[in-house]
Amino acid sequence: MSDLKNALEGAAGEGIISSDQAIRLLPYLAERNIGVKAAAVRNDLSQPREDDVANPLEDSEAPRFIRGFHDVLITIGIIVLLVGLWGLTGYYGPLPAIIILAEILVRRQRLALPAVVLTIALIHWTFSVTVMYFGMQNAGSPSLMTSWIMIALPFPPLLALYYWRYRVPLSLAMLLFSLFVLMLAGVFYLIGLATGVSNVVLNYPLQSFVIMFTAALGAFAVAMRFDLSDPGRRTRRSDVAFWLHLATAPALLYTAILLVFQFEAGNSGTFFFAGMEHGGYVQALTIVAIVVVMMLIGLIIDRRAFVTAGLMSLGVAIGAILRQNNAGLDKVSFIVLMIVGLIVLVIGVGWPHLRRAVVRLLPASVQGKLPALR
Fold this sequence. Notes:
The protein is mainly α. Helices cover 70% and strands 0% of the residues. It has helices spanning 2-13, 19-31, 69-89, 94-108, 112-135, 145-152, 155-166, 169-195, 200-203, 205-228, 236-265, 281-301, 305-308, 311-324, 329-349, 351-359, 364-367.
């Protein structure tokens, strides 16, 4: 496989074929054992690791997390240290520790998993401190969105500074996502001022869900901008897209469910899950349809986050359908787990075949912009 890959990259370097053609030819030729020396592959313990037959799925959506157990050991130490510091010093100790560890482990040693964990630790610290200082202080204000604005406001500058210094893809993804959250809170705040209501979502649920869904679509568009700029998924732009999709997929799913259910209930403020309490077929089938659409989107763009985001909702819908058919309550949960697990296995094992079947239905111009079929 490595010889074939090197040959195609060399051909692209000499201008015989384009880089995009080289990316697409690699899985096509590998599936047909063209350029792969089968005789050199051994199945015993003496087989060199580089002789292992590569699974093209491993490279289709793999952010650079772990490069060895050294990363895991260091990460365990980071988590234990920060938890201990938080318990002893409150919120004063973790931030200096995060900065010092980031200078050593991220900026100098470029360790991938510690970089992710330290970024998450910074986000957690920022959220905890802002909630402590601003969330409680403004809880009784005329507009509840004031609290959300104050909580979201520190994230963009801190994450921008963190990304500028350490170039962690997760920090850029969360910076962009925090900007959407801040913009959304600002829109609701302005609507609250204009209408004079303290809680826009409860007073104008349909309009609020439309705004939320629009914001989720905007975040998805930004994620796709990064994704389509690197269809071969060889640069850090792909990692940024991975984290954006991980945050955007559930936001897009649940805002779509909220919006559809609110249209069904009317603009009366009825909770969207009220019908689910009685196991209604319409509500359950609506959730199933939305989850299927999300899974199709995930197949098209080759992002599994759109599959995993809907598993819980899918389980709730299947449970409602089973209860409507008088299935025993003691067995419903196990049946739901079995069905959801089977769906996950079928999609996971058959991912390349399912994706090939779906993508080939699209126009050739669209297929050319998507990640290569594997």
